[in-house]
Specification:
alpha/beta, Enolase-like, domain 1, TIM Barrel, seven-stranded parallel beta sheet, four-stranded antiparallel beta sheet, 13 strands, 37% helix
Length: 373
């Protein structure tokens, strides 16, 4: 496989409303798109969108890295197998967001050459559909109405961001739990696959005492897990022992080189895989396989990527399907516009791989600005 042309584009998409995450307010989402064209005319794309506060690399450093790697790829004979391709890219020094975008583009090109999807390229037994979780930022108005709407729309997993106003959030959490338990009880589904589950995410914003107080007196049976609740990760086991709420690891995955101690830890319920932050497909697959062997979930989660990145994440989620789990990709609802013409709102709580792959390849070039060589 030989690459003929590589183009790099910049995008800047406004958000529908300001977003507060990790003490930073975001008003827009920006990043880069890498377009690869091989000598047979096959075209593929990858998204490079470092998120400040999550990725250590800046936009400027990511672009420098991207341009440097892109300059070396044309006119060389590239591997035509997934494992060989990833062995090749592992030898190149790249920031995580750059690695994810470049590896995605190269793997999409391999898939295009044999007329298959990224999901089936990664796993011939990939799922045909991917379940999504709903997302609620904790300062949402009329939170009970939002929860009921998600349930009516068919969502079985709903994620709520917490960690800004604990007293308000505790009161809201009681309302949310009452709504969910009422649905599960009426549907006699509290212990089966049709039960609605709640996920929480605190982004390491809470002390142990505050986190424990958040759940004090609450029925936590419908809570699937809370992502990284504590500012001190050494207290995660104490948190779980006190509250009985499982913990999902997120930031720890990119902070720690060795995760071995967590795969068989009782307090860990899931591993959150954010491809833009992790970067390497090989590392994601390794964590996924080790989590599966330990009987724990690996959940694919987005970082407010455009439709190009979300298409890749959906395909990865379909491939990582040994323990089905709702993917955290509902962030697309925050984007005012998108780079693809796929309408993610049309998919609801479950996405068809065939449909997303058929509609997300057509780009809105009006939103892309070519980066000079």
């Amino acid at each position: 496989m030989t690459i003929r042309t590589i183009n790099i584009y910049h995008f800047d998409i406004p958000l529908l409303r300001p977003l507060l995450m990790m003490n930073t307010v975001y008003h827009h989402r920006q990043g880069f798109v890498m377009e690869i064209i091989d000598t047979n005319g096959n075209t593929s794309y990858g998204e490079i969108s470092p998120l400040p506060g999550l990725n250590s690399e800046s936009m400027a450093s990511a672009l420098d890295n991207l341009k440097s790697v892109a300059a070396e790829l044309p006119d060389i004979n590239l591997p035509d197998r997934v494992d060989s391709m990833l062995d090749f890219t592992e030898r190149i020094e790249m920031f995580p967001s750059v690695r994810f975008g470049i590896e995605t583009a190269l793997l999409n090109l391999l898939a295009s050459r044999i007329n298959t999807s990224l999901a089936l390229l990664l796993n011939p037994n990939a799922a045909e559909t991917v379940e999504l979780n709903g997302l609620i930022i904790s300062d949402s108005e009329n939170i009970a109405k939002r929860i009921n709407q998600y349930i009516e729309d068919g969502y079985k997993t709903i994620k709520i961001k917490v960690g800004k106003d604990i007293e308000w959030e505790k009161a809201s959490l009681k309302v949310i739990i009452d709504v969910v338990n009422n649905y599960n009880t009426l549907g006699n589904s509290s212990k089966d696959e049709n039960a609605v589950k709640i996920r929480l995410d605190a982004n390491r914003s809470l002390s142990l005492n505050i986190a424990v107080n958040l759940f004090k007196g609450l029925d936590t049976a419908c809570i699937e897990y809370i992502e990284e609740p504590l500012d001190d990760i050494t207290q995660l086991c104490n948190f779980h022992n006190t509250t009985n709420v499982p913990v999902a690891l997120d930031e720890t995955i990119t902070d720690r080189a060795d995760l071995a101690e967590y795969f068989h830890s009782d307090f860990v319920g899931a591993f959150i895989l954010k491809p833009t932050a992790i970067g390497s497909y090989k590392k994601m697959a390794e964590i996924y396989e080790k989590a599966y062997s330990a009987g724990k979930k690996a959940v694919i989660s987005s970082c407010f990527e455009s439709g190009i990145g979300l298409k890749a994440l959906i395909n990865i989620a379909a491939a990582f399907n040994k323990i089905p789990s709702a993917a955290g990709l509902d962030t697309y609802k925050w984007l005012k516009d998108d780079l693809t013409f796929a309408s993610f709102d049309d998919f609801g709580p479950r996405v068809s791989i065939v449909k997303i792959n058929a509609t997300a390849d057509y780009l809105n070039m009006n939103l892309l600005r070519k980066v000079p060589d």
